[in-house]
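Bug #2210: token dump truncated for Dihydrofolate reductase family protein?
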Amino acid sequence: MRKLVYYVAVSIDGFIAGPGGESDFYPEAPDMVEHLRAELPETMPTHIRPHIGLDGVPNKRFDTVLMGRGTYQPALDAGVSSPYAHLRQYVVSRSLPDIADPAVELVAEDPIGLVRRLKAEDGDGDIWLCGGGVLAGQLLPEIDELLFKRYPVVAGDGVPAFAGQFRPRPFTPVETLTFSHGGTLTTYRPTA
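Reproduced locally. Full output below:
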């Protein structure tokens, strides 16, 4: 069965973006960037892939991306209606009136039902939960793996990795890679 994987950048204090959606405060490290390009090339937006040597590089892990409106909106603001054209794209939003791009499917209700249908499909590719925190909070019971890029910075405020009801769910770290700037990439799986 396909897995739902929440792969996201996060600050030390648990924020995935600043209060205005900022993400430019995350410090870069060449070794982290190279690792992500090699292992998760499909997580790079389609319109920048040719500029970073990933044009035509096949997907390695994910074949589907799921995002909330807050995650999708910056692409729209930049004039990009299909940010991950090399993946099947779903945007979960009750406030977005419509999506003009046929490559992106708008889902207004029942994100858990959507994820369950996607998981039941045949295929080897996993489902990438790209963000944001409200959607991750709604889908917490369905998340099969967390893949957190933790950057060595405190944001102080912003969009939390998970927003919503208080409902603790334990996860166990199964692998951590550390990069030159002190940032990490940690894989967590639900504790049995």
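Output looks complete on our side. The radius of gyration is 16 Å. Marking as cannot-reproduce; reopen if the truncation happens again.
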